[in-house]
Structure formats: C-alpha cells, structure tokens
Amino acid sequence: MIIILKPGVSKKQETSVLREIRNLGYRPHIMRGVARTVIGAIGDELTHQSLEALTTLFPQAVESVMPVQKRCKLVCREAHPANSTIKVREHVIGGKKLHVMAGPCSVESEAQLLKTAEAVKAAGATILRGGAFKPRTSPYEFQGLGEKGLKLLSKARRETGLAVITELLSEAHAEIVAEHADIIQIGARNSQNFQLLIAAARTGKPILLKRGLSMRIEEWLLAGEYILAHENSNLMFCERGIRTFETYTRNTLDLGAIPIIKRESHCPIVIDPSQGVGRADLVAAMCKGAVAMGADALLIEVHPNPAEAWSDGPQQVSLEMFAELMRELGPLIQAAGRE
Ligand code: PEP
Ligand code: MN
Known about the structure:
Blueprint: E1 2-5, H1 11-23, E2 27-32, E3 37-42, H2 54-57, E4 62-66, E5 86-88, E6 91-93, E7 99-103, H3 110-123, E8 127-129, H4 147-160, E9 163-167, H5 174-180, E10 183-186, H6 194-202, E11 207-210, H7 217-229, E12 235-239, H8 257-264, E13 269-271, H9 273-277, H10 280-292, E14 297-301, H11 319-335
Parallel strand pairs: 7-8, 7-14, 8-9, 9-10, 10-11, 11-12, 12-13, 13-14
Antiparallel strand pairs: 1-3, 1-4, 2-3, 5-6
C-alpha cells in the first residue's frame, strides 16, 4: 500500500503514522519528495489488517491510502496475457467460434424443453440453457422444477448433443447441478454470494458468472477472482444488464463491459440480451451490437410459446424469431472475424 501524507506534516505526526503501520504488521519505507512525503508499506493484507483506516486514524496527517497492486490478481491480463479459452464438451469458448447458448428461461416440461432444444440446435446454437432452480423475486412465482428439470436437461443433451448450462442457486445443490450441467451459471442475484462461488468453483465445472444488478466492474472481477482463487480457471463473465433509472427496458445492457472485460481480463465475455433488455423485440439488435463489440458468446432465452412461459415471457423470443436472428447474425459474426 502507498500512504500519501499531507503537506507540512510534523515529525511527531509522521512518527505516529510510522509506528501504527508497524503495529499493523507492515514494513514502512519512507520516500521524501519536495512537497510531501509518501510511505510505501510492505506486508500481506490477507494476514494483516488493512491500512485504509489510517486516513481516519490520522486525519491531520494522512491524505490517502492506495493499493499498489491491483486487487484482482488471477483474473487480470497481467497474470495471463493471452485470452483464456474454455473447453465445454467438444466446444471451445473464447476462441475463434462465437457460441450461442439458447433455450427457455425455465425448464417447464419435457415437450417444451425438447422442442426448444431441437429448434435452437437446427438454427446453430451449440449450448442449451434452461433454469431448473429459478431465483424468483417473489416466493409465490414458479421456482423451477428442481431436480426433475436437471434430468430433463440431461435428456435433452442425450437427444440433441447440445451442451447444457443451468443455474446453481444453493451450495446444497452443487453436486447434483454439476452432475447434469456442462456449465454452471451463477445468477445476478448471487454474484457476490462468495460461499456459493467457492462451492461452484470446487465442482471443477466451467462457471458463467453473471454481473450483479448493481455491481461495479471491479466487484465483478473480484467475484470472478473467487473462482480462480479456488483452483478453477474455467471462468466466463456474463453481462446481463444493470439496474439504472431507465424504465423503458427491464435493465440497461452495458455493452461497454465487453471491451472493458477484454482489456482487464483474459476470461471470455458472454452477453445475455434477454435479461439485459427484458423485451423480445430488442434482443436481435442487442445481439448484433454484442457480436460487433467482441462478445465471445451469447446467452439467449427462447421459448416455443413465449406468451405462455412460466417465467420471463416478455423477453423470450419464439423459435421462429430465434432462427431469423441467427440468420441475421451470420454476416456480422464473419465481419467480426469470428466463425
Ligand atoms: C436467467 O438467466 O434466467 C436469470 C435468472 O438470470 P439473471 O441471474 O441474470 O437474472
Ligand atoms: Mn430469465
């Protein structure tokens, strides 16, 4: 950490600050400039108290305390300059091919899931999405089919060859979800549920980490850090819209996150336009923007009959809309240098 002292700090105040830094378990190095003094404090913040409190302990003497190293260590480009790629069955995410993950918001029935799986596969998707455990705002809304939904996802994989992504809601379900999923989704509402992140990491499965409803990019990167710090390097970030003052759309899809994540991290970035805008009529435009901006994959909600969906009806595209969207995306995917 770097501690910047205020101009004109007395020798006595400086000595007190140095004593406190040592008391907290750090080694101080003094650098005296013309106008002010800067102290470099060396120590491990995992085992020592943070030095940030120095500004409140010595308000007359300490101007600011800044970290030298970035707080993210493993998800950052510095740690791994090349792009990371993630193997999901026979597919590679983060490579040349842009993958489309598609399927219903929730698994509702065998007929609904299989019909959707076959249609999205025929249109070019490689991964089937579908929530078996659903995080619903109200306890009175459909909570998902649970284990029965997971089994239907496995059945759909057997019948279509599509890989499967589904959400993990609770540490208690980590094992069973890992048994049926090829990618584990951590939802927006749980993106800072650190024990859940650790449990998900320990399954060894690839993890798709959604951005929280009001999560800053640094917090998102740090949440991802939990996955890598627990020995699972198969992490992808997924932007799914953040909550802003705007009400025209369900959320505000922050496509700016694509180049930022690409710059800061080596992990692939996935865009979910469905939760992102909450409106089926805007999904295609958002997908096109995402492809142009360098997204590695898309996560799209598709339902055979959106009007009758048990969750997120207004944002799910029909099978026909999805096929049309995939046709429209083709030339854009090529123009973006992807396959
Ligand atoms: C979903 O993918 O259906 C979902 C609930 O996502 P999010 O966590 O982004 O709201
Ligand atoms: Mn949904």
